[in-house]
Give the backbone structure.
Amino acid sequence: MKCPACGQEMTTEDFGIEVDVCANGCKGIWFDHGELRELDEQNEGLGVALEAALRSPRRNDAERGRITCPRCNIPMHTHRYDRAQAVNVDECYGCGGFFLDSGELTGIRDHFMDDAEVAAYAQQMASTVPEYTHELHDTQVGEKRRQAIQKLTRFLTLRYWRSTF
C-alpha cells in the first residue's frame, strides 16, 4: 500500500496489532477501521516498532491539502480526534481508516480524554452554540410544566375518588 501523504510504499509493523507504517518516508501510520481505538491510550500496544513510532518527531505539512484514502481512493476528511482534541487526524468516511502523520499518535496518547472528560468537553462546546442554550432552556421549562400538570392530575384524580366514596 502506498502512503497517502508522501507516496512511499508502507510496511506492515507489529504494534501489538498490525498497522501500516511509512518507514522509508514520512513516518506516517495507517490504521484500518477500529485499530486506532486499540492504541490511543498510554499503555496500549507493545513492541519495538511502536516505540520507534512514538519517538518520531511530529511532522505535518499544512500545505499538502486533502489526502486520498489508500484503501478506497476517496478524499479523506481532516478533523480533531474525538479523544484528543489537540490532534488533527485524517479519516476515511468510506472504510473508517485513519492516517496519522508522524508524531500524531504520541499527541493522541499524551492528550487522551476519558469518558467524563469527553462529556465535559462536549457540554462546553455545545454551550457556546446559542441555539443549544435556547433549546436547553425550553426543555427545562417544558419539564417543569410537565411535572406541574402531572401533579395536578394526580391531585384531581385523588380528589375525585375521595368524593365518590
About this structure: DSSP finds four helices and six strands in the chain. The longest helix spans residues 130-164. Residues 11-119 form one domain.
